[in-house]
User: Fold this.
Amino acid sequence: MGGWRDMSAESLVPPPGPGHHHRRPPGGDGGSGQTLLHVPYGDGDGEKLDIYFPTEPSETFPALVYIHGGYWQCMSKDDSGFAAPPLVSQGVAVVAVGYDIAPKGHMDTMVLQVRRSLAFLVEQYPRIRGIYLCGHSAGAHLAAMVLSTDWTEFQVVPDIKGAVLVSGLYDLEPILHTYVNDALNMSREVAQRNSPMRLVTPAAPAACEVLVAVAQHDSPEFRRQSQEYSQALRAAGWSVSVLDLAGVDHFDVIERLSEDSYVLTQVILNMISRA
Assistant:
């Protein structure tokens, strides 16, 4: 197959599909629960959250924190409410994270912003009992970077119980050689220090459960990276499962989270209920 540097950009990152437009729920409220839009977790333009609270929240409730994809340079939290209805109806809050995409946002900045958004959630919403990360594509990369966080500098430790990484990229060095880096403008050093594959640490005693999901029709490189990252985590003692989703591509693998009966929706709900 040859090395990454020999791969065409098209084999690395698929072009946006015609249906690749995530949606807010009808009415923008994530169901019938309370919704808070554009909640600032920092001073930056992109540093905002959309929070969809459960339809019938109990005294405490879990939260799925969703990090959008878009090759780190398109889409936003505003496109991310589609995942809320099946979860808020089951007592789970859904938090869509905004961050400064490229070219305004640097890769280091995006990683820091996502980490800070979690620290903010913990400090501002003490009723949240357990955080479940979910990221797609570039968002899966950012979620994986959260797993390598040294939380001492944030003076708070989020109770991350699970991570659902969907069709992600975990080694950024190959992107240096594709059009994707035109806006990102990453150096090799930046790519290396922001590659989850290079940052796998031995699992802590209370390490969260990790699900690495990949679409049947993802490109071979997405599938390879998902396999290698899951193997690296497992070798370091993490609790990892791999889900190969049949009949979906890089885009509808995540868009179908709007469906109650979709297998990934059910897997997420099962992960949360087990905890």
